Amino acid sequence: MSLAPYACDPARSRGRRHAIAPAPTRDDFQRDRDRIVHSTAFRRLVYKTQVFLNHEGDLFRTRLTHSIEVAQLARSIARSLRLNEDLTEAIALAHDLGHTPFGHAGQDALDECMAAHGGFEHNLQSLRVVDQLEHRYPGHDGLNLTFETREGILKHCSPVNARLLDAAEPGGVARRFIDGTQPSLEAQLANLADAIAYNAHDIDDGVRSGLLTLQQVAEVPLFARFVTQTQRDHPGLPQRRVLYESIRRMLSAQVYDVIDTTGAAIAAAAPPDADAARRAGPLVAFSPGMRAELAELKRFLFANLYRHPQVMGTTSQARQVVRELFAVYCQRPDELRPSFVQRPDRERAVADYIAGMTDRFALREHERLTGRKLLA
To answer: Residue 50: pLDDT above 80?
Structure first.
């Protein structure tokens, strides 16, 4: 299938920070994807939390399974829109590499710890991982990814950090946050696929955990219609299969909505190339109706799952683990690995070290350094 003119073409990439010889069998975006999959940070995602902490069960999503689901959704939509599938997949697989242990609880705690030292943003941390913290190549730090993949990984960025990044890399991946332009359509798509995957698997994990019931979720209008359809088409179907089939239909509806809405937006804007698409404003989007329904579903999940007393109890302890680890490492930097001890920016080195931890390693370190066992 040929790429659309507004898709990112690897032959026209803005390139890498460090020049490398072409590969005989792969283009630049395919190489980016492969470098991400083989990275240490990607492997660690298997023991990093989504909503439920790693010790709470083997069948709940982790950052790794979430990233794979995002990549699958994003690649399928990219194919329909004639965007670059390999670039879309690379961004999707890398978008959570900078996440801390314990999900958003860990991120929030680390941001508090770093408040006087530049704060902590997980999207910026993902870029740090691929630009600096992976040490796999003899001539440079980082994975040396293309501009287009790095641009997509930096999904959000504060104005302060955008200016700092742009000063170090003028006109680079942070420039769009200053100019008010958009990333590539492939990056926009990976971002939207992240939201689609989140909603679906949080319903699944929430019901599996017992914190939500199918009856509760079926009161949300978006999900209700797919439950009704499933029960009408398959009378007497066991509830677990009703749940799976309803989620599948909801996913399909969102995917087709994105394809139709985005296709119409692209046709109206008619960008002649990828850079024109960046200047055209956000083009990858849900329809207004679907966006409103998803906002209602998200409000339901916040009220009934993310803020459930059981979830809040575990995340409170998770924040404590991160805060206490940060304090100990800052006071006793010799407890860090040698490569982190040698760095002059102690607080940032500690943040990088903690952010790279899996849930279970963070818990083991916390018990070793404090003598107390949390989240047992």
So the answer is: no
> What three-state secondary structure class fits 49?
strand
**Nearest one of 43, 36, 16 to 86, comparing CA atoms:** 36
CATH of domain 28-206+242-370: 1.10.3210.10
> Rounded to the nearest 5°, which phi and psi values hold at 62?
-115, 175
Structure confidence at residue 314 (pLDDT)? 84
Residue pLDDT, tens place only, 137-155: 999 999 999 999 999 999 9
C-alpha 340/C-alpha 322 separation (Å) is 17
DSSP 3-state of 277? helix
CA separation for the pair 183, 283 (Å, rounded): 10
Rounded distance, CA 127 to CA 173, Å? 10
HSE-up of residue 159 (Cα within 13 Å, Cβ side): 3
- Residue whose pair of structure tokens reads 């073409």 in the numeric block: 9
pLDDT digits (tens, 9 = 90+) for 285-326: 999 999 999 999 999 999 998 888 888 888 889 999 999 999
Helix or strand (DSSP H, E) at 334: none
Cα–Cα distance for residue pair 292/120, rounded to 1 Å:
30
Q: Please, what's the b/e burial string for 175-193 (b: 16 or more CB within 10 A of its CB; e: otherwise)?
A: ebbeeeebbbbbbbbbbbb
The CA distance from 298 to 362, in Å, is: 29
- The continuous run of DSSP H or E covering 79 comes out as helix 63-81
User: When comparing pLDDT for 356 and 307, which is higher?
Assistant: 356
3-state secondary structure of 97: coil
Beta-carbon-side half-sphere exposure of residue 5 (alpha carbons within 13 Å)? 8
